[in-house]
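Subject: sequence -> structure tokens, single chain

Hey, anyone have a minute? Need the predicted structure for the following. Not urgent.
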Amino acid sequence: MLRHFPIKNVAYVHRKRDYFIAAFTFFCVAICLISDANASIEKQNALGVSGWVFLIGLLLGENKEVRMQVVIAVIFATIGEHFASPFMGGYTYRFGNVPAYVPPGHGMVYLTAVALARSGLFLSYAREITILVILVCGSWSFWGISGFAQQGDAVGALLFCVFLVYLFKGRSPMVYLAAFFITTWLELIGTAVGTWKWAAIDPVLGLSQGNPPSGVAAWYCLVDAVAIGGAPLVLNGSVKMLNRVRIRTLRSRTAD
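Reply:
Had a minute. Here:
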């Protein structure tokens, strides 16, 4: 059993698991979005069922705090999806809905960001990865407002600035860096195959918007921030509630 392994072997197994989560999610995202490009609504729903099975399977090896973070991320992101897409029209899915695979997909994306953030690669090369992300995302954002891009992207440049704030002032910069890679991957594939399309003009700000916006990772950073900050509150609140129930139960038994 794992608890009988030497410490170094336990760490090795944990690192392997982190890379497996990331590789598996990157693969699933590509297959899912490409499959959905010409899929029926029934196939979308089938992809959603598969997504939940995969997410639950990946969560079996995580602690309760990470599981709670994923639950909060799924709930918050799903609400955001319904507000930003069908309601506001910031981007539109093929059927004008929020596909069934999106909620579990957000859970897998968040878990991937957490797994990469704690991996040996990110911990060993944090500075280099930070510089790479800033250069790539910054260049992409500059291109969007330079006048050379086919579709202007003022929103992307604005989101890039927000992303920088998260990166240097947020509580989990490594998670935000990891989120950039997986979210950029899914956005580029999803928009390329036509699974969804971003509006050329943002309906809220009235600014030009790329397809996808260059700094779109900032939205996922918000999801990550809410999940990371909310999980301890929910867990602590649950413990307090259980303790109150136990105390009341004991008092009622004593009174009897």
